[in-house]
Amino acid sequence: MMKIIDELKDAKSIAISGHVRPDGDCVGSVMGLYLYLQKELPAAQIDVYLDKPADIFNCISHITDIKSEFNTNQVYDVFVVLDTVPDRLGDVEPIYERARKKINIDHHISNTGYGDVSVVEPERSSTAELLYELLNPEMIDTEIAMALYIGIIHDTGVLRYSNTSPRTLQVAAELVKTGFDFSQIIEETFFEKTYLQTQIMGRAVLESMRIMDGRCIVSVVSRRMMEFYQVTTKDLDGIVNQLQSVKGVDCAIFMYETGTSEYKVSMRSNGKVDVSAVAMKFGGGGHVRAAGCTMNGTYRDNINNLCKEIAEQF
Ligand code: 5GP
Ligand code: MN
Prior knowledge:
This protein is 38% helix and 19% strand. By secondary structure, it is α/β, with parallel strands linked by helices.
């Protein structure tokens, strides 16, 4: 397998980014690579661009180096896109377009490969696991390891989803060997919720509905509800997983309002439905068991349109 340093060693300026509304794998792999390259290429200018991550990720070293608001015409020698296709880069996309060399590292099955160097392995649990394989293990210190570990545990539900392979566990073991408090990391970044996060999850579960003979469960959070509980979209992580864990459910659909008649859709399945295929019909993507898209229309219309696709698979 190639080592990423072979593609970067001559670069004087490098930008790293991931997808909008970054999740744990996105933040972990972006920061893991950032910390790693600072060590391997101390003379290079390395910038990291990302929407401001949730506060739970403040434990990651140098997280405040992330540029969330920027205005630059800089042309980077290399731009590395992690955990996504370039069209989900958000505001940083023009900087990506101008870069002299483009590298894409991802594990989404919907990613068909972009840029000059593309490493897409859908059988990988996480971008963080894939990235680990591209790094020199002896250069991975505790702080780099912790960032990558966060990526792995977030995309595998703490090493329990079916995307966890024997190799995932080996990589996790190598990372843990560097000596960080993995138990605390799991608790504080994955399980712990604020009281308001717990309340809005409770509300979404309470108001959920089972449809299609109980095989599908749906719920929605409106902007008014978010205002009432004083939460932002970052506080809604985990709701769709909670819905999916209901006995008998093959597919969970959760959406939250992002604008007038605009919803962000999250889907989870137990494997009987390919939710990535469903999401791709509506311009999104993801994995067989976890995918998402953005939809325009009322909640009811969106559910109907998604369920038509799901029913065809049943
Ligand atoms: P989540 O439901 O946690 O936001 O996302 C589940 C999976 O689907 C993640 O791997 C995420 O990257 C992917 N995903 C979510 N929304 C979109 C989207 O709008 N477009 C694409 N291509 N992938 C998405
Ligand atoms: Mn991921």
